[in-house]
Write a structure and sequence with these properties.
Belongs to the FPG family. The chain has six helices and ten strands. The chain is an alpha+beta fold. The strands form three sheets. A four-stranded antiparallel beta sheet has the order 1-6-7-5, covered by helices on one side.
């Protein structure tokens, strides 16, 4: 599943169509694609893992799920979920969830929860976490209402950066350390964005999918943690368990 930084890249690639009219819409999506034809794409936004195609009075939400993908000015043999043609090119979405939301993106989304938004509010994230003392930090980092855009890679790398075990209880993590987690959730997301653009993302992973700790050299643990049972990679020596 693409994480927030990957959606930002998609948004940037599709920005060439802003202000352009949809000449043709097609695909096996269940939405009324005819509604899009003749409409002007007013903006392309990203909120966490959602790509938002903005029109005057409605928004098309693209969620890539586990296997979704897109191409700009290219095509492949797979079935197109939604394809939009403009005079200056086209975009195709594959194996993604496509939904029409009535209203503007700004009226529908809380930008303060998006770690990559200029409106990201770290203090609000800390406040939300204060109400989830009995939850595991590995689950809360994946909570899109708190850290919109953070996915499993970012979760693992952030917890390694700050030295916190994924099975730590939120309420037991010291406030200074919790603020560090919140800060690094944003910092690492922008590092992720830069590395991905440079095709250097995997080379910069310190713990995700790795076998040995880059700090102490011990074997890392791979475990499916939390309620979400997502893969966690961590070092029991360098990451403290708060319980």
């Amino acid at each position: 599943m693409p994480e927030g930084p990957s959606i930002v890249i998609a948004k940037e690639e599709m920005s060439v169509f802003i202000g352009k009219k949809v000449v043709e819409a097609h695909g096996n999506t269940k939405i009324d694609s005819d509604r899009l034809e003749g409409k002007v794409l007013s903006d392309v936004k990203s909120w966490g893992k959602h790509l938002l195609l903005c029109f005057d009075d409605f928004t098309v939400r693209i969620h890539f799920l586990l296997f979704g993908s897109y191409l700009v000015n290219e095509s492949k043999s797979a079935n197109v979920r939604l394809g939009l043609f403009f005079k200056n090119g086209h975009m195709n979405f594959y194996a993604a969830s496509v939904k029409v939301l009535e209203g503007t993106a700004d009226s529908l989304y809380d930008w303060s929860a998006d770690v990559m938004s200029e409106q990201w509010n770290p203090r609000l994230a800390v406040k939300k976490l204060a109400d989830k003392k009995e939850e595991l930090i590995c689950d809360e980092l994946l909570d899109q209402d708190v850290f919109s855009g953070v996915g499993n890679i970012i979760k693992n790398e952030v917890l390694f950066r700050v030295g916190v075990h994924p099975n730590s209880l939120v309420g037991k993590i010291p406030s200074k350390k919790m603020k560090e987690i919140v800060e690094q959730a944003q910092n690492y997301s922008f590092d992720f964005l830069r590395w991905k653009k440079e095709n250097q993302l995997k080379k910069n992973w310190l713990v995700h999918t790795k076998k040995e700790c880059s700090k102490c050299g011990r074997l890392l643990v791979k475990e499916y943690t939390g309620k979400k049972k997502r893969r966690s990679f961590f070092c029991t020596n360098c990451q403290k368990l708060y319980v």
